[in-house]
Design a protein that fits this description.
Length: 79
């Protein structure tokens, strides 16, 4: 939220509260920054489609362990 000066006010954000019920697709999520983004989205409540050129098993399992839905999409998204 922003106040009249356009700055963000502090509030309480509980884990899983921001994106509950939403879906996300993260490309390059098999490792590194992509995996971290996919896990962060799941931690805030999103179900995540995890895309990578190799099978992103560890990322998918981490998301499932959080109680979220996850699907693996293997393939090169370079068009």
């Amino acid at each position: 939220m922003t106040n009249s000066q356009g700055t963000y006010s502090q509030g309480t954000i509980t884990e899983g509260s921001i994106l509950k019920g939403q879906a996300a697709i993260v490309s390059g999520a098999g490792r590194g920054i992509g995996a971290a983004i996919a896990k962060a989205l799941a931690a805030q409540g999103a179900n995540v489609a995890v895309n990578d050129i190799r099978e992103p098993t560890e990322t998918v399992q981490a998301i499932l362990d959080m109680g979220r839905k996850a699907i693996s999409l293997v393939g090169d998204d370079d068009i």
